[in-house]
User: Fold this.
Amino acid sequence: RQESEMMRPRAYLTVGGLLAMYIGLSCMIYPLCDVLDVVGLPAAPCLILVIFGSFFIAFCVATFWMFVCWSCTRPWAALVFLIISLSGGVLLPTGN
Assistant:
């Protein structure tokens, strides 16, 4: 019982870390939209790329860290997280 009470904030910390990565990646990628605007290209598709691209990058990084943390104790679940992370990492640059 004491262990379950101690691990209760784990889910909130995970979601908080995912949101922090999302906000950080969005802040890093957003200046590219300004560069496109200076060049004269439309910036609206760039905002969609920033919003969704940052979320998927953050999700892939989070699943990779979950793989690293779970690799010793739960190898099959860790393998699923690794597959999710690698497939996201491969598909994200192609835009599929």
